[in-house]
Amino acid sequence: MKAITTIQTTKAVGQTVIVRGWVHTIRDMGKITFIDLRDQTGLLQVVVPGDYELPRLSVEYVIEVEGEVRERGERFRNPRLATGGVEVGATRVTLLNEAAELPFEVKKDTIDINEELRLKYRYLDVRSERMASNLRLRSNITKFIRDYLHEADFTEVETPLLTKGTPEGSREFLVPSRLHAEEFYVLPQSPQQFKQLLMVGGVGRYYQIARCLRDEDQRGDRQLEFTQVDMELSFVEQEDVLALNEAMMIKLVQELFPDKHISTTPFPRLTYAEAMEKYGSDKPDLRKDKDDPNELAFCWVVDFPMFEINTESSKVDAVHHPFTAPKAEDASQLEAEPMKVRADAYDIVLNGYEIGGGSIRIHSSELQRRVFELLGLGKHEIEARFGHMLEAFRYGVPPHGGLAYGLDRLIMILANEPNIREVIAFPKTGDGRDPLTGAPSATTEAALAEAHIRTVPIKRGRSS
Ligand code: ASP
């Protein structure tokens, strides 16, 4: 006999079916026992006649039910359930597995449960309706983006995780090389350099749902690893990148969030200077009604300054990253008035959050070298860190530009969640721990020796 999901029962009235899942609730009414059966598609009412000898059951036990799908009488329909018009009259209930008592209830929203506990038992947390629906929503959003970009002639390319650093303004994770003693890989803060090299390689339009890793201190709602929707396009100007992404966001909202509305289209555009002057922020919240959970106010912020002074080191830093092109009309001022030079860099902002950013890139090795020098890099350092980029730029590099979204943050806003951990299956705590597996954790002397690492004892205690 065919096993079906609970949602499929709505299309199987009159048929004898098998359904499987977890006991969400069980109510013994004497003459009859009601079981709410939960699977990945939702809940279904199972009715077991009183004379049927049920195995010993409790909540979260895993069972298989065979029975006939029946339409529920008018009075017994449950409009709150997608399967509320039907029920299964069980002729067989088989216990597949027992369950210990859960550390918290999963039939209620878990948002108020201690987060450490939720993360330790994340596999139970994602049984709850809101978390399960967030994971599905995430999957639907990435599928939409993939389909959209394929339709627009993009190629999905995976770039390496074990690589050399790329400057995006954060500390990098180091990975010791076992095969090359005293040498290290770096985990990527973004696929920035590889996507530009793909443009040199003639890929034309690249995208990737890319994991990025940044060894950041606890600061706001950040994760050590997060996901970008990363893209790069050849032979484009800023306008092309903005137009493509604006159209993609509008269609995503229309298709996946029909209840939501975008406050203003085309998306308002503000220069960085205007945004700072008018709103005192480079990510202004342009919602008309901040209490409306369905309002989405997108805007673009463009013309960011090229450089800023790092308050800690007093050195000149790139505001975006060093591959960003100066605006054509400002380029001649690079050496004379660097702090006045604007970049062809843009951010996409949604409801006061920066959800993505990108730029048109430098595609001349001479200009790229000048920018590195302005950032205070010596000849030797330029060669050691970026020699491969300057080399690649000698072989016919097309003008190019791109953008990357912070996917977790975008989903958080669309799902009306208060933080990105609610839309990530296995996030870490604010201080970078995984209460489920216990990472990070000490390792063995043997593993250290293999990686050519000697540890220096420090006073124990969690560093922040
Ligand atoms: N690599 C940039 C970032 O991670 C995005 C881009 O310039 O496309 O912010």
Number of helical elements:
10
Radius of gyration: 27 Å
> Quick one: biggest sheet?
8 strands, mixed
Ligands bound here?
A: aspartic acid
Low-pLDDT stretches are none
Total beta strand runs: 20
| Helix proportion | 10-25%
Strand order of the largest sheet: 7-10-11-20-19-18-15-13
Query: In one word, what is the shape?
Result: globular
- Distance N terminus to C terminus? 56 Å
Description:
There is one protein chain. This protein has 464 residues and is α+β, with helices and mostly antiparallel strands. The chain has 10 helices and 20 strands. It has helices at residues 115-120, 122-125, 129-151, 192-200, 238-256, 272-279, 365-374, 379-392, 407-414, 445-450, and strands at 3-4, 16-28, 32-39, 42-49, 62-71, 86-97, 155-156, 174-176, 184-186, 205-213, 225-234, 261-262, 269-271, 295-296, 298-302, 307-309, 316-318, 345-350, 353-360, 400-406. The strands form 5 sheets. It has an 8-stranded mixed beta sheet with strand order 7-10-11-20-19-18-15-13, with helices on both faces. A 5-stranded mixed β-barrel has the order 2-3-4-6-5. A hairpin with a 2-residue loop joins strand 18 (345-350) and strand 19 (353-360). Helix 7 packs antiparallel against helix 8. The mean pLDDT is 95. Bound molecules: aspartic acid (ASP). Aspartic acid (ASP) is lined by residues 168, 190, 192, 357-359, 402-404.
